[in-house]
Amino acid sequence: MHIITIAMQKGGVGKSTLARSLAVAAARDGLAVLILDMDAQQSASQWGERREADMPVVVFSTENDLPKRLEQARGAAGLVIIDTPPARSTEAPAAVEVADLVLIPTTPDVESLEQMPRTLRLCRGFGRPVWAVINMANPTGPAEVAQTREVIRAMGAQAAPVVLHRRKAHRDASASGLSVQEMDGASKAADEVTDLWAWIRAEMQIRH
Ligand SMILES: Nc1ncnc2c1ncn2[C@@H]1O[C@H](COP(=O)(O)OP(=O)(O)O)[C@@H](O)[C@H]1O
Ligand SMILES: [Mg+2]
């Protein structure tokens, strides 16, 4: 069982959206996927309730419940994706500690990038492999992505090669309890998510 934790101190950078999109991509790839929603705001859980499909399974978990939830998932789930709350929390360290891979979504804005070092330190403290994922990039401004990569590199970290651009389909999908791939499989937003998942899958050496 593989565990991906999605963490970033800054709110609104796309943690929950990324958790859901990757979970659907992995499920479509044949994996049994569990989203553990550790955010008290429960946006992933509420999305799960809006859905009709039975995959991914979405379960809320407190920090205290986490070991038990992971034990229950073992054998049943091929992939667990943990969504964490923003701000300083006790949930994020617990979720990072159990992760095989940590993803830190960030928008290209300075307000987000300024918050990254704290989350990076957390991952390094637990010795966890970590990648930044640039999200909500301007679709018509490639220079912005290049600059953002440079800022992330200067922090001693790396951004995933696949970038998610700002696309309305992400919001529309969320409202319908869907992911972008389910909302419009031919959209650029869907292609980006599929490419990101393929890269993560290879990076984590998850076999078919
Ligand atoms: N790539 C994207 N393009 C456009 N909107 C996005 C994108 N990613 C996320 N969003 C939107 O941004 C808002 C915040 O995303 P969310 O996943 O809830 O962030 P977080 O969990 O980090 O607080 C949501 O309305 C979501 O639909
Ligand atoms: Mg969230």
Automatic annotation (TrEMBL):
Alphabetized CDD domains for the sequence: ParAB_family
Domain CobQ/CobB/MinD/ParA nucleotide binding residue range list: 4-179
Pfam family for this entry, one: CbiA
Stored InterPro entries: CobQ/CobB/MinD/ParA_Nub-bd_dom, DNA_Partitioning_ATPase, P-loop_NTPase
UniProt-listed PANTHER family: COBQ_COBB_MIND_PARA NUCLEOTIDE BINDING DOMAIN-CONTAINING PROTEIN (PTHR13696:SF96), P-LOOP CONTAINING NUCLEOSIDE TRIPHOSPHATE HYDROLASE (PTHR13696)
Protein name: AAA family ATPase
